[in-house]
């Protein structure tokens, strides 16, 4: 293998590692935002469930109060009914008692419905509360992992860059510039084996001249199609 290709293969190895670590680093803000969004969603569900549960409790209390007021009225009307000596008034008061009793029945039905709803809303609230706690715990762990990844990757990238600075020393400036352009497009498959007459990167057939130049190893050869550097195996 050409000496320059051997040298560049090692550079490609470091560049690929740097690229992969950098891609992970670039993803971190997106990952962190997704984690935070999950917490926002869980908090919103919790707040909504709590509000619905509290609202229902207030409704139950209001119904209860309304009911008591009506029951008091029924007692007063019944007392008045038995005190009166006028038959029309007796009948009218009796009708009022029935009207109030109907209202009480209606309120009691409504209260029962609210009580049943209360059980459902409490279950939803408990689930939302548990989910929120779990999300908070998971978030803390995941954010910690992201922070650690950021630190670890940054250190490793710096180490690899230092290694690379040493590794490129023997490579000619013009060849390195060519390689850098290819790497920017092709990444880890910038320097590849020639398989028969097929480029190991884009898998297209290269021309006969390229095949012989690769095999002869007198000079650096590149794929006619994708510009990947080729070496013979
Ligand atoms: Zn190619």
Can you tell me about this structure?
The chain is 79% helix and 6% strand. A hairpin with a 6-residue loop joins strand 3 and strand 4. The relative contact order is 0.14. The longest helix has 81 residues, at 3-83. The chain folds into two domains: 6-171, Orthogonal Bundle (Helix Hairpins); 172-233, no CATH class. It has a four-stranded mixed sheet with strand order 2-1-4-3. It has helices at residues 3-83, 87-167, 173-186, 208-216; strands spanning 191-195, 198-199, 221-222, 229-232. The site of zinc ion has 8 residues, from loops.
Helix and strand pattern: HHHEEHEE
* CATH architectural arrangement of the largest domain: Orthogonal Bundle
The gross shape turns out to be rod-shaped
Mean pLDDT: 97
Q: How many DSSP-defined strands? A: 4
CATH topological fold name of the largest domain: Helix Hairpins
Quick one: biggest sheet? 4 strands, mixed
User: How many domains make up the 3D coordinates?
Assistant: 2
Unreliable parts: none
